[in-house]
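tokens incoming
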């Protein structure tokens, strides 16, 4: 098929490349000239190595062209972002403008697919309106929602192997979209209606947010009960019908902290659990900062805290909605000096420390926020050489507390009832 993909971000780009490598002729369009030029000259600016290789292969195949304007095709896939606006409501303006751009090019029998995560009803309401205003009946074209489901860090594998949900406005629209995705999806493709598909995507991420909120609430409870939360969760998960996620310093990324609001914003009185879960997760950075404050009280002169990890989760570069940002802001508001080190992250709101040594230099405490694999090589005796104090705050249960304790550190692990090691004396 001749396909135009609108929005060449972390979903649109690999999807376009995958389609191009599997028998389709793809034109990719992104509103940003920087993205278009970057892709044309060298896909090297893409941080994800697998996506970079896939994109380079697709471009060299001759079946993936980057266009400066939207080109007419037989199928259009809209993959633009749907961030939360400042008022917390979903910002659907990119979806709307892409829909009008596509509508101008449509001819009968064309297929329009919305991949962006949206509140239930959006495909028909926004894309459908643009099509009708163009003077076409929705029955003249095929319209479907096909939400992306891949996780950063495993995008290429998951694009192929994850099952897909396709919501057609009519069953025949769903079937048209199914045959396009079947060119590269190796797993099942389930066809339903568009509103159901929209809801399915949002509840997948909401489920995860609620589950993590339970883990986080248990962590706070366990700290009071004198029980190790991770041990308790590990054992509870031995039950065949229990599967609780891990507590941590908060839920980041551009999906899980945002998508639940697609339901809560439209139905505030029917989403009590969803809103509570969001609040529990959003407060976790404050809890981490409270514990840091207990361990490293601020005297009249400053204290330095080294923060390890700036991205929103392990082994990815994306720093959007990262818990580190909030923890860093709160600490600095309270008068701490901070240094953030992350050899993996890009796009963090402030300049990162140039090296681990720089971050640790004269620090009173080190705080592990992101469980990047590269941090596993950090040894307490080496870290301690650079630091002024010997305090480790581990917000992920990443390090072995006894090893750090044996290395002379006082250790607090989030979800763990006691601080291990002798009390540090802070003059
Ligand atoms: N987190 C925890 N504890 C856990 C798991 C995660 O605190 O046990 C935190 C992470 O550290 C991170 C945040 O939650 O800050 C989100 O990470 P994640 O791995 O749960 O999710 P994302 O945002 O990387 O990707 C999710 C995925 N959704 C589901 O697993 C249901 C992915 O499949 C979606 O495609 C993606 O959102 C999206 O784009 O919507």
């Amino acid at each position: 098929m001749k396909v135009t993909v609108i929005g060449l971000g972390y979903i649109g780009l690999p999807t376009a490349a995958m389609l191009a490598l599997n028998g389709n002729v793809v034109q990719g369009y992104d509103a940003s000239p920087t993205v278009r030029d970057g892709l044309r000259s060298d896909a090297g600016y893409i941080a994800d190595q697998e996506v970079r290789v896939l994109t380079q292969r697709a471009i060299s195949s001759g079946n993936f062209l980057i266009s400066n304007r939207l080109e007419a095709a037989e199928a259009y896939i809209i993959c633009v972002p749907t961030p939360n606006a400042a008022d917390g409501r979903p910002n659907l303006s990119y979806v709307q403008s892409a829909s009008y751009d596509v509508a101008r090019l449509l001819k009968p029998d064309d297929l329009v697919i919305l991949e962006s995560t949206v509140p239930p009803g959006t495909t028909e309401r926004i894309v459908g309106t643009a099509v009708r205003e163009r003077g076409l009946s929705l029955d003249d074209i095929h319209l479907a929602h096909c939400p992306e489901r891949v996780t950063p860090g495993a995008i290429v594998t998951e694009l192929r192997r994850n099952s897909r949900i396709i919501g057609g406005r009519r069953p025949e629209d769903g079937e048209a979209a199914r045959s396009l995705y079947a060119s590269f999806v190796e797993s099942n493709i389930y066809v339903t209606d568009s509103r159901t598909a929209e809801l399915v995507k949002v509840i997948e991420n909401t489920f995860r947010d609620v589950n993590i909120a339970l883990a986080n609430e248990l962590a706070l409870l366990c700290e009071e009960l004198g029980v190790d939360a991770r041990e308790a969760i590990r054992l509870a998960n031995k039950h065949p019908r229990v599967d609780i996620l891990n507590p941590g310093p908060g839920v980041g990324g551009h999906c899980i902290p945002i998508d639940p609001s697609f339901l809560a914003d439209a139905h505030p009185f029917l989403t009590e659990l969803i809103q509570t879960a969001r609040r529990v997760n959003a407060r976790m950075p404050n809890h981490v900062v409270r514990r840091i404050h207990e361990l490293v009280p601020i005297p009249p002169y400053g204290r330095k805290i080294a923060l390890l990890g700036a991205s929103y989760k392990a082994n990815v570069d994306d720093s959007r909605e990262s818990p580190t940002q909030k923890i860093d802001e709160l600490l600095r508001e309270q008068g701490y000096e901070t240094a953030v080190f992350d050899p993996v992250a890009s796009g963090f709101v402030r300049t990162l420390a140039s090296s681990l040594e720089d971050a640790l230099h004269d620090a009173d405490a080190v705080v592990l926020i992101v469980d990047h694999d590269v941090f596993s090589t950090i040894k307490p005796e080496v870290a301690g050489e650079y630091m002024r104090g010997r305090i480790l705050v581990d917000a992920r249960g990443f390090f072995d507390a006894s090893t750090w304790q044996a290395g002379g550190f006082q250790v607090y692990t989030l979800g763990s009832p006691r601080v291990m090691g002798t009390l540090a004396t802070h003059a």
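note: The pocket of SAJ is lined by residues 117, 148-152, 204-205, 208, 212, 245-246, 248, 251-253, 255-256, 312-313 (CB under 6 Å).
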